[in-house]
Amino acid sequence: MNHNLSYLHPYPFAKMAALLADSSPTNGYSEIKLGIGEPKHEPPAFVLDVLRENLDKISRYPTTNGMFELRQTIAHWLEKRFFLNHVDANDQVLPVMGTREAIFSFVQAVVDHDTTDKESNSVSSDTSPTVVMPNPFYQIYEGAAILAQATPYFVPCTSDNDYKGDYRAVPKDVWMRTQLLFVCSPNNPTGSVMTMDDWEYLIRLSDQYGFIIASDECYSELYFDTAPIGLLQACAALGRRDFKNCIVFHSLSKRSNLPGLRSGFVAGDAKILQAYLQYRTYQGSAMPIPHQLASIAAWQDEKHVAHNRALYQEKFALWMSELGELLKLRMPDAGFYFWVKVPEQFGSDDEIFVKALYEQANIHALAGRYLSREVDGHNPGQGYVRIALVASVDESREAISRIRKLLGA
Prior knowledge:
single chain; seven-stranded mixed beta sheet; about 400 residues; alpha/beta
């Protein structure tokens, strides 16, 4: 077996299961799941209709790079959403079976162990490939880096840096061996969004040190007033229409409430995508044709996306109104998570608070420490809880009522 498997941490939800293994709800409440970021809003009916109408095409093998019609639809969506002059559907877009799989495989394709010292241009066998990522983070970033035999480097996202991470504090020697930088904007779990200044700084760093920027933008369509700036949009604003060393990941899971469709795409630098496509012809799972046709319908429609945003906005407003002061809630810039600082009455301990929510209110939330790694003696997720506003409005009202009782209000 691959010995690097032994270095993988248990997945956050496995840790949660272990934490609650000896616990049980004590008051007969029905279960409310706010721990897993799985959308519960209704998927668009017209997309499901397209899927059903094309089930006969399941008998055909799909191509690795997908149907041209899907790539063209995605290219047009990118152009409109991010104010891009042109996206080449043949060279700058690649449909994938969900971004979780794509993020993992992308790291395997990108990491190069035949490294070259960037100052002397000589091969250096003792230079470990590094993958930089925010902390807390989506666990696939770390796992993919470990199994690619790269070294993860964690950039703490704290209140001191608006929960986005201070990339200016990363030492030069780290950037020297960095091959890939992961950015998540809107961030999971903090909900923070990168500004144009933030993007420009990272793009300049990429130019200086030659690493790839991979932007996970799966929550980009769940915003309040202003649509978040994406990495390709920042490239275009800087006149970089080839998107050099810049790659984005998008998905229909959150945007269109279609997590089970496993439909997403990777877009950006054509040179990188050409090599990644070659890798995927051996490794990747091609998207079934019925899924591709359903995806075309989803990417072409914005009405259901606006309706989806409105539902989340209603729930955020409800939580802020009823629990904002009591829990000291901080509104995220975008996404559907609250990154909640644990109340002092629970010792500011995220595991204790999560157990109390489960045992006394039958509410599932996720302990922040399970989404983070300790760096220099500090885990930036410790003392926080991630709450996903995926339940219905009625369930949200019920959850709020239970939490108020738990807090003694």
